[in-house]
Amino acid sequence: KGKRAFIAGVADDHGYGWAIAKSLAAAGAEILVGTWVPALNIFETSLRRGKFDESRVLPDGSLMKITKVYPLDAVFDTPEDVPEDIKTNKRYAGSSNWTVKEVAESVKQDFGSIDILVHSLANGPEVTKPLLETSRYGYLAAISASSYSYVSLLKHFIPIMNPGGSSLSLTYIASERIIPGYGGGMSSAKAGLESDTRVLAFEAGRKHNIRVNTISAGPLRSRAAKAIGFIDMMIDYSLANAPLQKELSAEEIGNTAAFLASPLASAITGAVIYVDNGLNAMGAAV
Ligand code: NAD
Fold first, then answer.
1. C-alpha to C-alpha distance for 162 and 185, rounded to whole angstroms
2. What pLDDT digit, counting tens, does each position of 152-167 carry?
3. Is the CB–ligand 1 distance for residue 219 below 6 Å?
């Protein structure tokens, strides 16, 4: 029987979430995605108008099918958490049931269960500021959108995940090594995400037989990465210094996600898996 995946954090065809969706689809999974509410309209319109058709092509020549797109804002757990200004914001008012709890309930109603949960989202309003200049608001917002959002997703989806299922997030080496430019508390958020991966692996493993891992990905020119402003420099740095001197493709992260979600990875949980052309292993620039 085919598996069903829910991938949170897909709003175009440039990011890791899209590539993960494609690799999972190529491996036979049914694809559901969660799209940030303010980005929903343009994503759905583009999908419908065929703007992504070229990047939907799977290795067998067929087009990836996204069975359903759910609006999602992963910084809100329940409708009671949503402040008035967001509720009445016109980019949100057109959608409903987009808090984490409601999305999990909708997926349960529509499909009953899932096997694979992917968290491919992050946000830090002050990411371009050094940590020393980051406000409390900015720091907590980064943690809320980039770390707690994962705890919340897993917490609300675990009851509808089949035993033997697999859950996965995306992290970045700035959690453990100094990457100047990755500011606003985003480095702290990724450190939290990686630590949580271990604790959640224990809790979800013991209680539900679910595996929890995170992929520490190398640099990709996604929409989110372009907003940070240093992505071209990081790609050049990797090309110059990594053991493998090639540009990293999103597909390589997608394929690792498909492996981690499969029975081939049945003993892997609580792990940070580097998919970065080996850059993490270097101790000096060449
Ligand atoms: P991306 O822009 O494709 O994905 C980020 C997504 O998060 C977007 O679709 C955005 O709409 C969504 N999002 C933001 N706030 C949200 C919220 N509150 N609720 C729901 N969705 C929200 O960019 P990406 O680089 O592919 O990012 C995916 C993951 O990969 C992130 O966790 C990122 O930190 C990680 N990552 C990226 C790189 C890189 O170089 N691009 C490297 C390592 C790790």
1. 34
2. 999 999 999 999 999 9
3. yes
